[in-house]
Fold:
Amino acid sequence: MKALLLAGGLGTRLRPLTEHLPKPMALVGNRPWLEHLVLNYREQGIREFVIAVKHYRERIQSRLGDGARFGVSIQYAVEKELLGTAGAIKNAEPLLGERFLVVNADIIHRFDFAAALRFHESRRGLATLLLTEVEDPSPYGVVECEPDGRIRSFVEKPKREEAPSNRINAGVYIMEREALKHIPAGRVVSIEKETFPLLVRSENGIYGYPIDGYWMDMGTTARYRQLHWDVLDRRFPLALGGKEIRDRIWIGEGVQVGQGVLFMPPVLIGDNTTIGDRSIVGPYTVVGDSCRIGSGVRISHTILWERCKVRGGAQLHQCIFGSGMRVGPHILHEAVCNRTLEVRG
Ligand code: GTP
Structure:
């Protein structure tokens, strides 16, 4: 069975990190999320992927290629114009089989795929939507189901007090090819707003399958940051590079640590990074591969992507910096920048 990963959106809510990058390529624990996603599904037995791309597709294609590096095959369905979540699936139709998995590639999740597939087969619906429970469903689409899981209705972005349940569409679906007949070709179609409400009324209907593993939509900087804290606290057990030298202190290969450096857990340091004398790194800090951190730097609650240079004396708190940033000896709080917004000392 193939997995179709939707990765063509603009990622506007995660700007400026996504100014020149598809959102699913944002680094999570020092590796593009899309790579983690392919590897996670490979572990679950999926070997064939289609990635639906549009914005900055070359960033995805040059990094993931034909998938051989990951022991899988990857094909690309390219949109000339953004077609929306269902339009993108319809556009990929020639590359898909009778039954396939669809994944919003910006959703961080893990679930038992084989169990979900058994549920889907037993219900014979046109699609099975994975459902996850959230504390506040108001930014999402809430799903109401019959006792056997058949979906009765959707309530888009309800007021918190009016939400019929806390179960939302997790952005991961098992679909039958038959469902694609209900998606018009060549125009923008939203799966949440248009396709699923239509399929609810079809004869075979669609079903909801609750999952209880970790789930996070990394679409905003607040959630992207929280995701990292969850990774560092092992609430989400993502495979991290490097060696755990002490409880929740991971140090990559080839890292050079100066005199008197203090790591306050949890901390993840990428490969080939240098940290100058007397710097204090952590808690809740991720430093990417090949970064240069000067002397006497203080970094906490911060995520630095690869190849960042931080001058001696800088203090960074609650910042997120994209690849290749240069940071002068400033005190920065809650700054979110990518390489186009250089902060010089
Ligand atoms: P925002 O602009 O911040 O809302 O982000 P987005 O539109 O990129 O993402 P959204 O959360 O709306 O979409 C969920 C997933 O579907 C993301 O991984 C997107 O990349 C992807 N996606 C959304 N719209 C399209 C589309 O028109 N085509 C393709 N191929 N993928 C899409």
